[in-house]
Design a protein that fits this description.
Two copies of one chain form a homodimer.
Chain A: H1 18-39, H2 46-53, H3 57-60, H4 67-90, H5 127-142, H6 145-156, H7 164-188, H8 194-215, H9 219-227, H10 238-253
Helix pairs in contact in A: 1-2, 1-4, 4-5, 4-6, 4-7, 5-8, 5-10, 6-8, 7-8, 8-10
């Protein structure tokens, strides 16, 4: 709720040049990001963001349609950054060509079978490579509280209060991220099919969003958990839980093929 | 938004006797249930519920603390009804003693190994029994849109705006339901450990909540999906997707044991 000098009487300048507009836009996204990380996405209003940037709410609406569009932009940005982290965590462990871009989800050619990749007898889900994929995926979400918080809000709220064009742009980004993540998984575990890799990534993303909300209760509920042993079972430790679920999914994909 | 005759000038009667109070409480829950099923949990306000019952908002607040407490009561009710459906779907297929109550999550004694249960070579996840469990679980959520919608709202909103006592009561109900569901799974798949059965149930419930929101977009997003083939990959068909994920999880639990 801090007010910057900019908003003081008489000194407020409307951004007119393209670079000023981009700067203002970045400032709005940065303010929303900081507030959401501190207080949780659900509590941050358009007025909070405007106050943090030090502009009026009406000025903010020249840059974004709605509060939801601001958070949808942050979600798209978080997906792109998440894919970069998956590349960083998994590409060095698996030699061979870099995984294909979003337009080319399946790799032709033989599997690389590099170090850590299981032999053919494991159906491609080599234990070493599967453990690495499970760990990198668990941390990719566990280390990104804002992405996890946003995932749960996206279908529930964010996609419902923006223009069709804004939601379309967002969907293409998120689908692209899932496709590229699936290609990264397939590069590490070539025994899985492209569809199975997509299934794994989509399930992990949905679970990360749902479990993060459970792992991060409000202050009243957190106090209750701490005080009542009967409720201990309701607590979730996010990264270990995601790692274990990833291991289960990767172990089950090939054997459950119909 | 319909007004019942009760709310007309002069005819409104305050419920005074205990049975009248219970009736009024049921009417409030029933109105919230109908509106949430029709319009989605996120759009239903306290004022909408009061208008549907035909009482004033202040009168409604004599029965429930907040809008969120009303929906938390509906969630508890939905969990109990869901467990009953799991019993109905799985108990007849697996002979032997009924699964234990919530206070006794693990069964001592040897596995029953009834028809449809896999032999020891499958690690207890017999294909027939596992397929049945996957199908019954997928339908238990797919057939219950209100439960699925509520699951996503529970940690995000409902548990954050009620008294500690209300959230504690709710948590004991939901934990009891998960524990009983895990016991039902273990009865069908005695090769799994109690912890693995709980892991399966918890993952399925979280996924059902998250995927239901994706499978049920608002009108604008649904129109976009229908019109744009690039976005087809974002659609989810809830019950088949849950069935497939359940099969993967059940196939992966035993092999991924550390």
């Amino acid at each position: 709720m801090s007010t910057s000098p900019e908003v003081s009487a008489g000194t407020y300048q409307r951004a007119r040049r393209p670079e000023q507009k981009l700067e203002r836009r970045d400032a709005i996204l940065g303010a929303a990001r900081e507030l959401a990380l501190r207080d949780g996405v659900r509590t941050v209003s358009l007025a909070d963001i405007a106050a943090r940037v030090g502009i009026h709410k009406s000025a903010l609406l020249r840059y974004f349609e709605t509060r939801e569009q601001i958070f949808l932009e942050l979600t798209a940005e978080a997906w792109r950054e998440w894919v970069t982290a998956l590349h960083a965590g998994l590409d060095p462990a698996v030699p061979g060509p870099a995984s294909p871009g979003p337009g080319e989800p399946g790799r032709a050619g033989p599997g690389t079978g590099g170090p850590g990749t299981g032999g053919p007898g494991t159906g491609g889900s080599g234990t070493g490579a599967a453990a690495l994929v499970a760990d990198v995926f668990a941390r990719s979400f566990g280390d990104r509280p804002l992405l996890c918080d946003l995932i749960a809000h996206t279908p529930l709220n964010l996609e419902r209060n923006v223009s069709p064009e804004a939601v379309r742009r967002y969907k293409l980004t998120s689908l692209g991220a899932v496709g590229e993540a699936a290609a990264i998984v397939r590069h590490a575990l070539p025994g899985l099919t492209p569809a199975e890799c997509t299934e794994f990534v989509a399930a992990m993303a949905s679970l990360a969003g749902a479990l993060w909300q459970i792992a991060n209760p409000g202050p009243a509920l957190a106090a209750l958990y701490a005080s009542d042993p009967d409720l201990a079972g309701a607590c979730v430790d996010l990264t270990p839980r995601l790692r274990r679920t990833a291991e289960i999914l990767l172990a089950g994909l090939a054997p459950s093929r119909s």
